[in-house]
Amino acid sequence: MGAAIQNFLLCAHSLGFGSSLTSGMAMRASPLRQLFQINEGEQAMCCINVGTVVKHKTMRLRPDLLLL
């Protein structure tokens, strides 16, 4: 499932779209479960968000990798 999601995100990006995931606690929220009619005993993996990029995030400093 993870590879399929990654390929979907990469495909959207290659077509010029922005994409992201919603997962974790948000997927267990009652409004979302009701919206997508997720029944008791069922679990949603994630929501894939795809759209046109209007504004890019600013770059952030990332730590150097330490090789041991």
Give me some keywords for this one:
68 residues; alpha+beta; 2 helices; 28% helix
β-strand amount: 5-15%
Low-confidence stretches: none
Describe the global form: extended
Estimated radius of gyration: 16 Å
SSE string? HEHE
What do the pLDDT scores average to?
A: 89
Total domain count: 1
Q: How many H/I helices?
A: 2
Reported for the largest beta sheet, the result is: 2 strands, antiparallel
Counted beta strands: 2
Cα end-to-end separation? 32 Å
Query: Which class do the helix and strand fractions yield?
Result: alpha+beta
The proportion of residues forming helix, as a percent range, comes to 25-40%
Order of strands side by side in the largest beta sheet? 1-2
Q: Overview of this structure, please?
A:
- With 68 residues, this protein is α+β, with helices and mostly antiparallel strands.
- Helix content is 28%, strand content 15%.
- The protein is built from 2 helices and 2 strands.
- A two-stranded antiparallel ribbon has the order 1-2.
- The longest helix is centred in the first third of the chain and has 13 residues, at 2-14.
- The model has no long low-confidence stretch (mean pLDDT 89).
